[in-house]
Specification:
heterotrimer; A mainly alpha (about 350); B alpha/beta (about 500); C mainly alpha (about 300); A: about 350 residues; mainly alpha; ABC transporter involved in vitamin B12 uptake, BtuC; B: about 500 residues; 6-stranded mixed sheet
């Protein structure tokens, strides 16, 4: 039935690689999945007695109708793009990292702490805060990796569980050292202006989007044009082959996890510095898990994750308009995201 | 007395390969029949057909007077045939009795653990199995685990047991215990088919032996009165007068020196291979070959001993360092170790050399020089594919192996370790691979050529060693090859 | 004291349902990351169902159906289509969140969430036992679903240990090939297990919305599904131990609330972190001797 697989005591990890069947027609399948989910959403809209075309139209207008709205959409896209690219790289290497949620949160803590503790002049303030955010995210991912490699616990479990610890950590930190006394809810004091991200005039999009695009392009370059990227792709396809090729699986795991953690942390920092200008409770909710959606929608290719994250960003930005103008609850967007993901998973999975 | 099992004219082909080419087989009740043969002789195929895992192309099977045709394992089991696989189908985290009850309707919807446990104890006593129903399978040594499989067969009233290489994972004492159990089963009137390649066991336990070679019965004899030599010959049986003509070569200095190398699955091996020499390692698959080759290549850690390549001690060197030192490796697992099938020809050609030019400069890959190099290799080694970016999965087995050969040999290595290098290839591709290896030898490299195809090993090697039970059973220059002796070595302890 | 224990039981009950369902799924070999979505769907269906039909029983039934529907979704994509368990579970959670929020508003027809206010389920005192001193009011005067969860623990434990079906389920999570060799169908076993997981977790949601609060609000499960996952890991996939873990987490939270009311500066966040850290510790400490089902999360080979 099954051919015996050679065991590799030095480099063996139980082969639970997450494999996307990367064959032709992948783009087509993904588009089909998106289409199907939009159709289902249209059905849901009709169910509520509204006109789907009207609803989607309002959503589109809400997303790109004015420069300010486009800016909001781009802001919305940024964390998905950053975190999604990092997650995509992990998945390419066969490492299922679903810890972006927590890494983003911790990144926010890092940025806030740096901005508040070291009041520097711009642009150093921004650079220092973002660096701190990335470092925090990387450290958080490092914890998960250490437990995974050191105690042989599946990385999915370690990254998942640490998410919740991180979210609670944000609350703890806001109730303590970084909090603003006297505020009605958990938030930090407003960060010094020097640490605010530059905002495009009239669009209101912060520079974070540009950072994210540059990051995605760089990651694509790394994936396809560097030795490290090659090693990742080999490891994701076949662990024995990676060992045969002379790559060190533990070293690869550390590298890609720290990188992904840094990117997610950076996303958190950007949210704090660019959108809220302070650390607030729950600022990161949902970004991390949806980053996984976005990574899969983009077929694990950072350049394709740009349109994929834009898709999600535009959806979410337009949802409030849709609710206001047409009366279709904005929660529909979450449904679309969930359905898309489900269909993409079903359509693109490895078939033995 | 009517035979328990009657198989007549069994034919089964896989493409051009006639795995079973008109085999007749009888098993009597209360008889242990040995089924002897090398890898590829057709033993496993025959048993899979009997057990219903594969349909035959032709032939009839009559079991207990009734014909079995177009059946699945479930029907075979219901009829009273039990197969004890080489890799056990047990749940380690469960107890013996739970494993017995799994999928067994007699255990009931609400499982009658206590009642079944009593049955387990009873059968265990009757056949000398020494199994504790409450023991966790994970705590049992391999020999005991096998007995759980046998127990399952007994409790389900199997009349014919098929044991596939049952002693391959057992220690000598465990083997003795197993044979004792089989004798008791025989005394109860069960029929047993004992598949093996080990002659001493055949002589010890079997009543009759059928020898398979290349899909046909090459010999059939009662064990009493058969001699080892005769059986070995039936198994290996090449034309004794066949001449081997290796091109005489004066080998250079020792390039690969292995002393007392030990690892899980193989133990204390020593060998020296000179430049311009091919050491062939023959032996039935599963006797420590892959453990040896993987350890030489650096993919498994050696527990003891030394490996020295051109004077450099590489015993604990990582894989990449060994490649740098001039060690090339063609692993047996083409599909998921030697190649990444989802990637392109060019990417596979650079798999082990991705750090050096022309494939990369520093940390960056250089796709244009890489493609040029790939194109050159494709021409040189006649790799038939649409281009360097063709996906490897699409290529034929022969072309896939040519990629592996091209990659490893183009480096002009000092030492090549090849394991099953021509496995599954058509004659043309096989010829190609062998020619390349010989050319490498002629260029002064040392080659360790491991294969379970004796003919191939005999053709290509200057010296031949035989691996059995994780050790070298013997070694001799190929020119003086004594096939009877080699057969004996392959089949167990030498005379 | 009894108030404290009563609070603990109250907090623990929905968790226990989810944990029981999760054990079914995980022991069959599928990671139960979708518990959150299954609970949420159940919570929604229980309230809406009761509001529509006027009958709490119908609401509870609908909760099971809703949870099972999410379970079916997860089963199809993760087991039948062999997608990664974890990602599928997360997706189901996102989907359930969206669907329940959406439907809640659609029902009112005006884009505003329907304001449903139901009386939480009343307690059913068990005659005789309810009159026992101390224990009586604490243990035997509980709303019906709480009794059900205890019964559920017992039934699951018996099922796993003493039935052929339970044996097959456990085997599917350890070595599906052996199940196949023994004539079983591991694919069907896994799918049924995940659907059943959904149904039971849906009941947990019903406890939350119908039995305790009396209404449904967006995302009201608030991560309890993940907490249940942590507790079944801490309980090492055994029904009674997982239930005990849920109770311990409930006590920790109840304790922390008590302390807060006394002005003791215990950080509630650290307390809330404890279950996840504990689960990590259990996983890390177990290492090789983990009782994690051996074949969990591994896709089934096609033949």
């Amino acid at each position: 039935m099954m051919a015996p697989v050679s065991s590799l005591p030095i480099t063996a990890f139980k082969g639970r690689a997450f494999r996307l069947q990367l064959r032709e027609g992948l783009a087509g399948r993904i588009l089909l999945a998106v289409l199907l989910s939009i159709l289902c959403a249209a059905a849901l809209v009709a169910l509520s007695g509204h006109n789907p075309v009207e609803a989607f139209g309002a959503m589109a207008v809400g997303a790109v109708g004015s420069p300010h709205q486009i800016g909001a959409a781009l802001n919305r896209t940024t964390p998905y793009l950053l975190a999604g690219s990092g997650v995509a790289l992990c998945f390419r290497a066969g490492i299922i990292n679903i810890g972006a949620e927590g890494q983003i949160a911790v990144g926010g803590i890092g940025a806030t702490a740096a901005a508040l503790a070291f009041p520097l002049d711009a642009p150093f303030a921004v650079a220092a805060s973002l660096l701190s955010a990335a470092a925090a995210g990387a450290v958080w991912a490092g914890f998960a990796t250490a437990i995974h490699l050191g105690r042989r616990v599946h990385e999915v479990l370690t990254t998942l569980l640490l998410n919740f610890v991180a979210l609670l950590l944000v609350q703890q930190v806001l109730a303590g050292p970084l909090g603003q006394f006297g505020a009605g809810f958990l938030q930090s004091p407003e960060l010094p202006r020097a640490a605010w991200l530059w905002r495009m005039p009239s669009f209101g999009a912060h520079s974070g989007f540009l950072i994210a695009v540059v990051a995605a392009a760089s990651l694509s370059f790394v994936l396809w044009r560097t030795r490290f990227g090659f090693a990742l792709r080999v490891a994701g396809s076949s662990r024995p082959a990676a060992a045969y090729a002379g790559f060190s699986l533990p070293r690869l795991t550390w590298s890609v996890m720290l990188l992904a953690g840094a990117l997610a942390g950076l996303a958190g920092g950007i949210e704090v510095l660019g959108v809220h200008r302070r650390l607030i409770e729950g600022f990161s909710l949902g970004f991390g898990f949806k980053a996984v959606t976005v990574a899969l929608l983009g077929a694990l290719e950072p350049l394709a994750i740009v349109p994929a994250s834009l898709f999600v960003g535009l959806l979410e930005a337009g949802s409030l308009s849709m609710q206001r103008q047409v009366g279709v609850p904005s929660a529909l967007v979450v449904v679309i995201e969930g359905l898309t993901m489900l269909f993409v998973l079903a359509a693109t999975v490895r078939r033995a | 007395m009517a035979p328990l099992l009657k198989m007549r004219g069994m034919v089964r082909t896989f493409g051009a390969l006639r795995a079973n080419d008109g085999i007749d087989l009888d098993v009597q009740p209360g008889q242990i029949l040995g089924l002897l043969g090398e890898n590829g002789s057709g033993k496993s195929t025959l048993m899979k057909v009997l057990f219903g895992m594969l349909p035959p192309d032709a032939g009839t099977i009559i079991f207990r007077g009734r014909e079995l045709s177009r059946h699945h394992p479930r029907e075979a089991m219901a009829a009273g045939i039990a197969m004890i696989h080489q890799h056990f189908m047990l749940i380690e985290a469960m107890t013996v009795v739970e494993n017995v009850m799994l999928g067994w309707q007699q255990a009931g919807r609400v499982i009658r653990t206590a009642a079944i446990a009593a049955q387990v104890r009873e059968a265990s006593r009757r056949f000398g199995l020494h199994l504790d129903p409450a023991a966790l399978v994970a705590t049992l040594p391999l020999g005991r685990r096998q007995r759980v499989e046998i127990l399952k067969a007994i409790l389900r009233d199997a009349e014919l047991l098929i044991l596939d290489e049952p002693t391959s994972n057992l220690a000598p004492t465990e083997i003795a215990d197993l044979l004792a159990i089989l004798r008791r089963l025989r005394a109860e009137g069960k029929g047993i088919i004992f598949i093996t390649h080990k002659l001493p066991e055949v002589l010890e336990i079997c009543d009759e032996v059928v020898v398979l070679r290349d899909g046909r019965v090459s010999g059939r004899a009662p064990v009493a009165g058969a001699s080892r030599a005769r059986l070995a010959e039936m198994m290996v049986g090449r034309d004794l007068a066949r001449a081997h003509k290796p091109v005489p070569r004066t080998p250079g200095g020792v390039r690969l020196s292995v002393s007392d190398l030990t690892g899980p699955g193989f133990g204390s091996l020593s060998l020296d291979v000179r430049g311009g020499e091919i050491l062939g390692v023959a032996g039935v698959d599963g006797n420590g070959q892959i453990e040896l080759t993987d350890t030489l290549a650096g993919m498994r850690r050696a527990q003891a001993g030394r490996i020295v390549l051109d004077g450099r001690d590489i015993t604990h060197a990582p894989v990449a360092a060994r490649v740098q030192a001039g060690l090339a490796y063609i692993p047996a697992d083409r599909a998921s170790t030697a190649l990444v099938r989802g990637m392109s020809v060019a990417e596979n050609l650079m798999l082990r050399d991705s750090g050096s030019s022309p494939y990369a400069r520093g940390p960056f890959l250089t796709p244009v020089p890489a493609a040029t190099k790939a194109q050159k290799l494709m021409t040189e080694y006649d790799i038939r594919a649409a281009g360097p970016s063709a996906v490897v999965m699409r290529l034929s087995g022969g072309n896939q192996q040519k990629i592996v050969v091209a990659r490893e040999l183009d480096r002009a290595p000092a030492v090549l370790v090849a394991h099953q290098a021509a496995w599954g290839l058509d004659p043309g591709a096989t010829r190609f691979v062998l020619d390349q290896v010989i050319a490498l030898r002629d260029a002064g490299a040392a080659v360790v050529y491991v294969s379970s195809e004796l003919e191939e090993v005999l053709e290509i090697s200057d010296r031949i060693a035989v691996m059995a039970g994780g050790q070298f059973a013997g070694e001799m220059p190929t020119a003086e090859a004594d096939l009877k002796q080699i057969g004996l070595w392959m089949a167990g302890r030498p005379e | 004291m009894t108030e404290f224990l009563a609070a603990a039981i109250r907090i623990a009950t929905p968790l226990m349902f989810a944990a029981l369902g999760g054990i079914l799924s995980e022991r069959a070999g599928v990671f139960a990351v979708g518990l959150e979505g299954m609970m949420l769907a159940g919570a929604f269906a229980a309230v809406v169902g009761t509001w529509w039909s006027g009958d709490a029983g119908a609401g509870v039934l609908l909760a099971t159906v809703a949870g099972a529907a999410i379970g079916l979704m997860v089963a199809t994509v993760a087991v039948r289509f062999r997608a990664d368990n974890m990602v599928t579970g997360l997706t189901a959670n996102i989907l359930a969140l969206g669907l329940t929020s959406y439907l809640l508003r659609v029902l009112a027809g005006g884009g505003q969430p329907v304001a449903i206010h139901l009386t939480p389920l009343a307690a059913w005192p068990i005659p005789g036992l309810a009159d026992l001193p101390v224990l009586g009011p604490l243990l035997f005067v509980q709303p019906p679903l709480t009794y059900l969860v205890v019964l559920g623990c017992l039934m699951l434990a018996l099922f796993l240990r003493h039935t052929q079906a339970g044996l097959t389920l456990r085997a599917s999570g350890e070595n599906p090939e052996a199940v196949f060799a023994a004539g079983g169908n591991p694919l069907r076993v896994r799918m049924l297990a995940v659907i059943a997981c959904g149904a039971i977790a849906g009941l947990g949601g019903a406890v939350l919305s119908l039995q305790q609060v009396g209404t449904f609000t967006d995302g009201m499960t608030g991560g309890r599904g993940y907490l249940a996952l942590a507790s079944l890991i801490v309980g090492r996939w055994d029904p009674w131990a997982a239930a005990a873990a849920c109770l311990v987490f409930g006590m920790a939270e109840a304790f922390e609330l008590r302390l807060q009311s006394f002005g003791v500066p215990v950080s509630s966040y650290i307390v809330h972190m404890a279950p996840y850290l504990l689960a990590l510790a259990v996983l890390a400490g177990l290492g090789r001797s983990s009782k994690l089902p051996a074949a969990i999360g591994q896709p089934l080979q096609s033949d």
